Amino acid sequence: MATTRVQTAADYRERLGPSLWVIVSAAVLAPMAALVLAPIDTTVALAVGAAIGVAAIALLVWMSPVVRVTDDRVFAGRAWIDARYLGEPVALTAEDARFARGPGLDATAWHVIRGGIDGVVVVPVVDPDDPARAWVISSRTPDRLAAAIRRAQAVV
């Protein structure tokens, strides 16, 4: 008997992994470690260098924040909020997203921003007891994330 996972209307999940240039930069650790150990033993140096390079890249990917939307909650990194406490999400790209990540960044907002990811979704928080006035979330597909948040709000 096969079991299937029932996907709800609001399901959305995205890992905000590092960009290619960050991964390449982490991979530079491998030859650096190998060069340090090369005078001792070249075979050990190559093995340790490769292990350090792979470990650095794996750690970067594993520690990347996840953005997720379920039927009633929005998760961004280590935080979550009930969808009923959120206002209308705004998906931004290009120059608008650059402004939202830079000069227009609200210091009182909850931020999950990753370099190398162009899109941003800004969602105001309508809960008067919440100290964060908005959530600013990086996304490779900001339109899909904004739509998932709207669907979660409709479910609640």
List the helices and strands and how they pair.
Blueprint: E1 12-15, H1 20-27, H2 29-37, H3 42-62, E2 66-69, E3 73-76, E4 79-82, E5 90-92, H4 94-101, E6 110-112, E7 119-124, E8 134-139, H5 142-155
Number of domains: 2
Tally the helices. Answer: 5
Main-sheet strand order equals: 1-2-3-4
Mean pLDDT value: 89
Q: Which structural class do you get from the secondary structure elements?
A: alpha+beta
**Percent of residues in beta strands?**
15-25%
- Low-confidence stretches are none
Largest sheet, described in full? Answer: 4 strands, antiparallel
Radius of gyration: 20 Å
Describe this structure in words.
The protein is of the alpha+beta class. The chain has two domains: 45 residues, no CATH class; 84 residues, no CATH class. It contains five helices and eight strands, in the order βαααββββαβββα. β2 and β3 form a beta hairpin. The relative contact order is 0.19. The model has no long low-confidence stretch (mean pLDDT 89).
